[in-house]
Amino acid sequence: MKINSPLFIIGCPRSGTTLLASLLERTRYGAPVETHFITKYYKRLKKYEPLSKKDNFQRLVRNIIKERPVRQWNINYDINLLWVKLKKYSYSEVVHLICMERFKKFGKSMWSDKTPHYILDIQILYKLFPESKFIYIVRDGRDVALSLLKKKWGPKNVYSCAMLWKNCNSQEKYLKEIERKGNLFRLKYEELLCNPSEIVKNIYNFLGERIGDRDLESIVSIINRANFYKWKKQMSDKDIKIFESVANDVLMYHGYEVINENPCLPFYEKAYYKLHNAVGRLCYLFELNTIDWFKIDFMGKEPFGE
At 161, which helix (H) or strand (E)? Predict the structure, then answer.
């Protein structure tokens, strides 16, 4: 294992990243968590350069550890000590130090992440951590849509769910580059549920981890093997058509059946769905970033979310 070589689980939200993370608790990586800040602050890095200046480093770390996902770790960071531990003045090293503080707390020798939307910035992760390993999980987009629509933070209609799923699962250029290096493991959510023992054993082999038959049996016992293709019974014909009008090509690329061969929506319906989603997203962000933060900072609310 090389220095700064974490593990990333990537995939569209509600594709099984959390389930997959729970299966890795016994590895050196532990169960991956959602960091959310890595690509966000990479894109803002010019505001903190050069990191060789202690003031810039401290300002960057202070801002990162104020982020809600990091606050959930309940770690009292000693920023001066992190500065002493810094081996090189790079953003990847800063990320590594911050994340390792959390994983060392649980006796793990390396950190791991399962922030789903990172798949849209996979080239950034690969640039920052070229020796890292990636597990890419795909789930039938129509089941993903059913799950997303139940979440306050998710898209507000099937059309927007389809757009998100299609974008997340159309990153082959970068995935293939990582795969050629031998650092990518692909799987389907449905295959994991149907054949969990073999899939989990293959994942552990990919990570260079040993697992006995008894431990394997215990790990896969948490899997609900019937939790797939719910869309066939729960999704209306209209919603299936809407989803497939957006993502038919990507569904077929990943080997999923489609019901409608060439579905299409009129432009005014697309415009309505986009507007509906944008308004709903703005309302959610206002609640999250204004009302919720007020409660956290002034009313003692714990910084935990869904």
Answer: helix 158-168
DSSP 14: T
Share of the chain residues as helix, strand and coil, in percent rounded to the nearest 5: 55, 5, 40
Distance, in Å, from the CA atom of 15 to the CA atom of 194, rounded to the nearest integer, reads 15
Question: Residue 263: is the preceding peptide bond cis (ω within 30°)?
Answer: no
Task: Return the number of other C-beta atoms located less than 10 Å from residue 268's C-beta.
Answer: 8
**DSSP letter, residue 288:** I
Regarding predicted confidence, which is higher, 301 or 30? 30
Measured distance CA(189)–CA(187) in Å, rounded:
7
DSSP 169: T
Whole-angstrom distance, CA of residue 115 vs CA of residue 93: 19
Determine if residue 115 is left, alpha or beta; phi over 0 gives left, psi from -120 to 50 gives alpha, anything else beta. Answer: beta
| 158-168 helix and 237-253 helix, angle to the nearest 10 degrees | 10
- Write down the pLDDT at residue 225: 84
| pLDDT at residue 289 tops 80 | no
Q: Residue holding tokens 């389930």?
A: 19
Q: Are the C-beta atoms of residues 288 and 296 closer than 8 Å to each other?
A: no
Residue 125 · residue 8 · CB < 8 Å: yes
Q: What angle do CA 97, 29, 119 make, to 5 degrees?
A: 80
Collect all residues with Cβ–Cβ distance below 8 Å to 126 and sequence separation of at least 6.
132, 174, 177, 178
Amino acid identity of 239? D
Sole residue written with tokens 């789930």: 139
Helical pair 237-253 and 141-148, crossing angle rounded to 10 deg:
130
Query: pLDDT of 101-156, one tens digit each?
Result: 999 999 999 999 999 889 999 999 999 999 999 999 999 999 999 999 999 999 99
Using alpha carbons only, give the angle 188, 37, 61 rounded to the nearest 5 degrees: 150
The CA–CA distances, whole Å, from 204 to 199, 219, 282 equal 9, 12, 41
